[in-house]
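ok so I'm stuck.
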Amino acid sequence: MRMTGGQALVAQLLAEGVRDLAGVPHDLVGPATEAIARTGGALRFYAARHEQAAARMADGYARASGRIGVCLVGPGAGVLDALSGLASAHSRSTPVLLLAGQTPSHLLGAGLGLPHELPDQSGVLAALTTHCALARRPEQVPAMVRTAVRALRSGRPRPVALELPPDVLAAEADIRLLDPGLDTGCPVRPDAGEIEAAAKLLRGARRPVLYAGWGVQAADADAELLALAESLGAPVVTSLGGPGAIPGDHPLAFPHLAGRQLLRAADVVLAVGARFLETTGEPNRIGAHTRLVLLNADEHDFGPPREPDVTVHADARLGLAALAEAVGQVRGRGWPVSTVDRIWAWTARELTACGPQLGWVSALRKAIPADGVLVDEVGPIGCVVPSAYPVLEPRTFLAAGQDGGLGGAFATALGARLAQPDRPVVALLGDGVSAWNPQELATAKRYRIGVVAVVFNENPAGVDFLGLAKAFGVRGFRASDPDALCAAVAQAVNLGEPALVEVPTGPMPSPGHLVRERRSPRPAVSVRRGPFG
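replied:
not stuck anymore, here's the structure
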């Protein structure tokens, strides 16, 4: 069929099931955006105000849905601006496809100081992608898209980039589109010997613990995780990015903070879809005699500084299903109630030490429906959430990436809402990071993307956030206490439109002890017994 490279790109994306993409229009990718406009809405393009936001929208879209998130940006500075979002997607193992413009084919690598020319753009992208390809002819475009999608659906999902020079996008040729058929990629299948070695340890364990990272949800393995946990009677500890792998109100569910004590008391730990590293880069601390099993789709996460006794190289869903079958039913052991009560009491003391943040987080949980998506940001509130906000359904808590990027929660939330338009989506922001991407309020308003931004303002004498919301035509609310926050968020969620809730808090104590261990003791407090008791 006769078509341009840009038309072939759009047609193959549609064939692969892509229906939405974010981006920033640019002359050098003009043939692609023109082809998108001619689809009559079959492929919807959401123009962000900045490339970082566009990349984060693709990240949020993919994490909230499990589908591929797509981002289109211009070359040079456009690619560099998108790297922050791409780094978060890489750190969170998210299937994001970056479509990047390039300089004209005959000038690639010429080093002439052309507009939008970036020295070794391909090398820059290669550092944050599992696959990066450059189109030389329009006939290559469908196969490049097919290869990219297959890579995004195979092994550990991480970003993929395609570079598209403007002449390749504009040129016409006889181009054959490819039928993806029922191809769903190549998940890593478990080895029978590795499964049996892991199952043997779990069958003999008296105090087993399952440790779930984001990889469990990325593989849609939450049902398999729960089945194995219930057959073993094993507590499930979620990593900082893992809440949602098991319903947070399940008796076997324990937050990351409580996991510190459980991991040390366990005799066997199975870590699934997790790096199993502290934020310091050290391995999660386990008991001196604890046996460690690592199950991961990426063998890189088996290496030092970790010291596993058994490794299972497999997709989380396939590996957990095989383990559950091999282990069988070993109910009846369980953990001593006294031990579990002691762990919950310690956890409550640590959370109470956070001061006011615990009340704010509890208010958010009351206001946001069970299927609502909460997007986290690093900060005094965000660091409390993984241990104090029970996540009730998979893919409803999107944590900040280990890359440490700030200011991305709102744009990530925009993507999540596009992927899940029938679910409430709330983004947590601090007063500082809110100034990094405030322009995306205009994106939310333009496309009526119903995200609620909750800004915890430690410097009420600074930015007028309600004035900012008004300037962008967005509804604004102010909440001065947890009850008011609960009411404001609930009202904003029910609007179904973009909204901003300002929470003037004043300076809050650091909750750093919740995400990295400390040695200073905390005073005991009266606590309620946890769900195990």
